[in-house]
Known about the structure:
Layout: H1 2-12, H2 24-28, E1 40-43, H3 46-57, H4 61-64, E2 80-87, H5 96-99, E3 111-113, E4 117-118, E5 124-127, E6 131-134, H6 140-151, E7 158-166, E8 171-176, E9 182-185, E10 191-192, H7 193-199, E11 211-216, E12 219-224, H8 225-230, E13 237-238, E14 243-247, E15 251-257, E16 263-267, E17 272-273, H9 274-280, E18 289-300, E19 319-325, H10 331-338, E20 340-341, E21 346-351, H11 353-376
Amino acid sequence: MLAASSALLLGGCASFVPSAGPRTAAVTEAAQSPSLRGIELVDVNYGIAEALKRESQALRFASFFNQPQLTDYHVGPGDVLQVFIWEAPPAMLFTPQALSGTGLSSSGTGTLALPQQIVGNSGTVVVPFAGKIPVDGKTLSDIESEITNRLRGKANHPQVIVQLVRNNTQNITVVGNVQRSMEVPMIPGGIKLLRAIALAGGVTKPVEKSTIQISRDGRSMTLPLEAILRNPQDNISLQSGDVVTALYQPLSFTALGAIGRNGEVDFEANGITLAQALARIGGLDDNRSNPSGVFLFRMVPPNALPWPQKPTTLVDGKVPTIFQFNLRDPATFFAAQSFPVENKDLIYVSDAPAADLQKVLNVVGSIVYPFQTLQSFGVIR
């Protein structure tokens, strides 16, 4: 009777013995499970690891954002302009006598410097003897030509220079973990990303833990600052209206199962590989782990991998995917050295079948041993 009971326990205990998570078979069968339909299972090899590595490296500011065309500055409401007028001798219009009573003064050589003017909502500035000059949306040279044409026939060979004193309309906003949040005015020739950050005093957190986000026309992208420094192509030219945000958001992955240390682990903004991640959690527990049951859970973009069949389930536009690593195969270690770990990944290592058996035997022993002890003392016959 005791032997029959033991056999029954061995057959049924596996379903309720303690476990850190699902067994290997339960994970590998997820793709075929009716209740989990839509989850993709990917057996990782070196080719897949390299494909994901290339896909992650392809995310670059230089390819994501169109490079702005460098054009002449266009004036807008809020800008501050100053107009200088020079009249060839003998001056006929801008003379001390002609300007008396206007509050303006000429240098006596026919040169007139008008006071600085803020371009109002009407988009105009006022020039004596020329009237209201429309300047909104025009370049400085366009404004100079307009004023010159209006003064021609009134002044003796007039020449005009228009100076942009202060740019209040075309700026780049730099915020976040920088020394001082500010608006960086656009200048001829443009402003590059690292220059805008430098003008804001630089980042306040370590470079290897800082990321930079650029927001433009409703689109945003984030890259590690260290990657931008290593790849000059990502030091792109900014355009008016861009928002540059320096972020300090430590990236992390979660590790569970038969490993040296369960928990959430931070890593550098520039990223780490699966091999590095496993090392940081103390590796696999050689008393419990199943080396062929190493899994990484991630939401993957649909175009990240050449799927055998088009994925049917998308969550927020991404495919729920389980990557499986068989560390019993030495070749998989090469894949682990290339496979990039991403923020919010979950790494899980299942228990080995022998560990489950040991747990069952421990349960059986906890029942059988007291029974045998009582029987040896004659309590039970």
